[in-house]
Amino acid sequence: MKGAATTLGMRARLVACWALMLGGGLLLAALPATAGVPAARTLVVAVPEDIITLDPARYSGHTLTETVQRLIYRTFLDKDGAFLTADAAASVRARDPLTWEIALSEGVVTHAGQTLTPAIVQQYLNRLTSPTGIAGYPSPARERLAPIESVSVSGGLVVVRLREPWAGFPARLLAEPAAALDRQGQPVGTGPFRLERWDRGNRVILQRVAQPEDPRAVTRIQFEVIPSAEERLRRVLSGEVHVALNLPPGAFWRLRASSRAKPVVVPRSRVHFMEFDHGGPPFNDQRVRVALNLAVDTERLLREVAQFETEAVATMLSPVTLGYDPDVALYGYDPIRARELLAEAGYPNGFAFELDVPRSKERVGRLYREMFKEVGVDVTLRVWDTWQELREQILLGRRHAWLAEWGNSSLDPAGSIRPKLHSQGEANYGGYANPTLDALLDEADRIPDPNERLERYGLIQQFIRQEAPVVFGYVEYEVYGASRSLDWTPGPNGWLNLEDARWLE
User: Fold this and answer.
1) What is the pLDDT of residue 305?
2) Euclidean distance between CA atoms 455 and 283, whole angstroms
3) What is the separation of C-alpha 453 from the centre of its chain, rounded to a whole number of angstroms?
4) What pLDDT, on the 0 to 100 scale, is given for residue 22?
5) What is the per-residue pLDDT for 206?
6) What's the pTM?
7) What is the dihedral of CA 107, 111, 116, 119, to 10 degrees?
8) pLDDT at 65 over 90
9) pLDDT band for position 40 (cuts 50, 70, 90)
């Protein structure tokens, strides 16, 4: 739960809201116990490294830092499945391609008891985005908010002016802390936890701000820095810690066999797939690409690659991405239909090609080779020591098919699809170009209503599935270790959602 109990109603979906509207300086000294919060068992989390800062202005990107800050600060928006929901912001809408308006939720209060107002948010955001935000110098946060030109207040709204169109601005607000500044110009938290202690390089301890309604809720969290992955796993298996991150290979099965701990898995945003050079035959023929998708026994691939710590995807989007449509069907395994399509495309006896794979994906490449052979396609593997070496040759136009992957930390669908499949995409290494898809993507990113835009990406996913520009693959799961005494579901993109954790005993 973020914020006080009085703000629970702000978690409702924003669909109705959109329609209506569219129409290191934070509290680093140890704090006394919070009044009304009883002494309780501490939730201990084993992490591989320390956080960078507790100040949102003083870092650009760091998953663990962001995780801790999500406990100390509310974010402007939240996520419910494929859609954006309210948090510190009640709604976010585009007035025009370069202007966004943020309406704040009512009753958002800082740890110091100050109500968040548009003027307070303007001051806070200017510290993050102006060229002189921190003591006359730009803050590191400007990198993650680079398109923002200015922030002002108008008609009770926070108005953000951009240098260039940025359709993914609302998705950025999923991870962007909302705060106020104290008299010294330092941020003051708005979230469910505050800092109790930070022993740099060793641990961070947080304490809940207000007594939760649920007596099983976690009221104290300790992040313990343990650099060794094997040691983190050992400690969660022994019961010394309650949650462990970044575990060694094979941790899933060891956790599953434990009486004290359990594996908790969540898909990542990074998608694995096979990419082609679309400049000529055979891969410029949609029937060939569909045939290769139908030739893949996905269940076997996942079973042999990652022992079910993966999930097949029907397009370029991971299930954790905003706008992901679970109703877009996988191709499924149909070697008979694959042979028919190859014959229709002029390859009744199949064809041969060389598949490039980084050494880390050699096993996956061998599986594809075996499956394609069953439909008459002869694959020769070429193994590269690193992706960087292979990428150089791809960019020179010397390679024709390769195993690839693409991550999207923003969770915005444009960050997954546009770079790889728009004809002008910066990572469209295969030269795929489809005017219809370009138009669909461009049109979607001109829609001012954020959730309507995400719904439009459902149509885009259907089109991509039909076109099969790549052999669609899978997403790997992040495997966490957790105590069997804990009821906890982590969020996407490394967000731990520890504020929602509950003790079972």
Assistant:
1) 78
2) 30
3) 18
4) 31
5) 98
6) 0.79
7) 170
8) yes
9) low
**Taking a C-beta distance cutoff of 8 angstroms, is the pair 301, 311 a contact?**
no
Q: Across the chain, which distance is largest between two alpha carbons, in Å?
A: 77
> Are 481 and 248 contacting, i.e. CB atoms less than 8 angstroms apart?
no
Q: Check: CB of residue 220 under 8 Å from CB of residue 207.
A: yes
Residue 194: name the closest of 357, 27, 422 by CA: 27
Q: Which two tokens stand for residue 455?
A: 């719904």
Residue at token pair 């809940």: 208
Q: How far is it, in rounded angstroms, from Cα 103 to Cα 299? A: 46
- Pair 481, 48: CB distance under 8 Å: no
pLDDT value for 411: 86
Radius of gyration of the chain (CA): 24
The burial class, CB within 10 Å (0-12 / 13-18 / 19+), for 22 is middle
Q: What is the 3-state secondary structure (H, E, C) of 324-380?
A: CCCCCCCCCCCHHHHHHHHHHCCCCCCCEEEEEEEHHHHHHHHHHHHHHHCCCCEEE
Which range (15-24, 139-148, 310-319) has the least confidence?
15-24
Which amino acid does the sequence have at 480? Y
Supply φ then ψ for residue 193, to 5 degrees. Answer: -125, 155
The answer for residues whose C-beta is within 8 angstroms of residue 116's C-beta and 6 or more apart is: 88, 104, 108, 109, 110, 178, 180, 190
Which of the 8 DSSP states describes residue 308?
T
Is pLDDT at 125 greater than 50 in this prediction? yes
Phi, psi angle pair for 214, to nearest 5°: -85, 120
Q: Spell out the alpha helix ranges (H) of 10-117.
A: 15-21, 63-72
Write down all domains in the chain, each with its CATH number in brackets. Answer: 5-225+484-503 (3.40.190.10), 268-477 (3.10.105.10)
Distance of CA 87 to the CA centre of its chain: 18
Among 400, 100, 397, CA closest to 274:
400
Cα(50)–Cα(285) distance, integer angstroms: 50
Phi and psi torsions of 206, nearest 5° = -115, 150
Which run of H or E residues covers position 436? helix 435-444
Distance CA 443, CA 421 (A): 15
The Cα 426–Cα 438 span in angstroms is: 14
Cβ atoms of residues 100 and 448 within 8 Å: no
> Residue 151: beta bridge partners?
160
* Backbone phi, psi, residue 459, to 5°: -65, -40
